[in-house]
């Protein structure tokens, strides 16, 4: 079905007959530099490429591959590919680092438990007291481990989000550069694809950081 939710990547699968029957609702008049994008988003080309558009608009574009694709195709049709290429390069974000060593001890509980246990052992404390202290130490380690998993999960999520954003910008930049290099070349197969690609490394990171059985064997 062809409707307002149809994306660029889906167009090659739609028959010419369906395209011929397409009827679009009237749209408001646009200024010379304005773009009407999916999700009812209207932007001014000059504001966008000069970085003057509001942050919310930038985020919508960065998160929606179909909006980005519309900007790419419109910009190339208007012969502003060079400006768009420069803009895309500025949209690349520095990748957040994935931490390798966490030594957080919530409330210092684990260290306190170790100190008390060692002191009890040196004083030949009763077995029941030693059992209680060991249980306290295990509890502190469990609490630290849960916090570790939480922190690693948050960092992995930030990493995957940044990586997907950069991938969209890289794909868009690839299309623009190919068009800039070959002015008559519009048959690039990337035109028929979305701006997103499968993020296999992101999936591996998610599994590694959420699976406690892999914690000690993960590469460092």
What does this entry show, briefly?
By secondary structure, this protein is mainly alpha-helical. It has helices at about 15-20, 45-50, 55-65, 65-75, 80-90, 110-120, 125-180, 200-210, and strands at about 35, 40-45.
Structure, explained:
The chain is mainly alpha-helical. The protein has one domain. Helices cover 55% and strands 4% of the residues. The protein contains 8 helices and 2 strands, in the order αββααααααα. It has helices at 16-20, 45-49, 55-63, 65-77, 81-90, 109-122, 127-181, 200-210, and strands at 34-37, 41-44. A two-stranded antiparallel ribbon has the order 1-2. The radius of gyration is 27 Å and the shape is elongated. It starts with 15 loop residues before the first helix and ends in a 10-residue tail after the last helix. 15% of the residues are buried.
What order do the helices and strands come in, and which of them pair?
Blueprint: H1 16-20, E1 34-37, E2 41-44, H2 45-49, H3 55-63, H4 65-77, H5 81-90, H6 109-122, H7 127-181, H8 200-210
Antiparallel strand pairs: 1-2
Helix pairs in contact: 3-4, 4-7, 5-7, 6-7, 7-8
């Amino acid at each position: 079905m062809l409707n307002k939710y149809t994306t660029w990547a889906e167009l090659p699968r739609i028959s010419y007959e369906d395209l011929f029957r397409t009827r679009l609702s009237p749209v408001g008049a646009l200024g010379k530099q304005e773009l009407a994008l999916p999700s009812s988003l209207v932007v001014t080309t000059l504001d966008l490429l000069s970085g003057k558009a509001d942050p919310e608009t930038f985020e919508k574009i960065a998160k929606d591959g179909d909006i980005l694709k519309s900007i790419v195709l419109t910009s190339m049709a208007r012969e502003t590919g060079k400006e768009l290429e420069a803009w895309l390069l500025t949209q690349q974000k520095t990748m957040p680092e994935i931490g390798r060593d966490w030594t957080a001890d919530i409330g210092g509980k684990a260290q306190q438990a170790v100190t008390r246990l060692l002191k009890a052992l040196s004083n030949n404390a009763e077995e029941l007291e030693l059992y209680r202290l060991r249980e306290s130490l295990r509890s502190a380690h469990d609490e630290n481990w849960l916090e570790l998993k939480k922190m690693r999960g948050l960092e992995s999520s930030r990493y995957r989000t940044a990586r997907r954003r950069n991938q969209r910008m890289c794909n868009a930049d690839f299309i623009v550069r190919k068009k800039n290099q070959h002015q008559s070349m519009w048959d690039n197969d990337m035109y028929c694809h979305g701006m997103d690609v499968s993020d296999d490394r992101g999936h591996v990171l998610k599994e590694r950081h959420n699976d406690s059985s892999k914690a000690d064997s993960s590469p460092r």
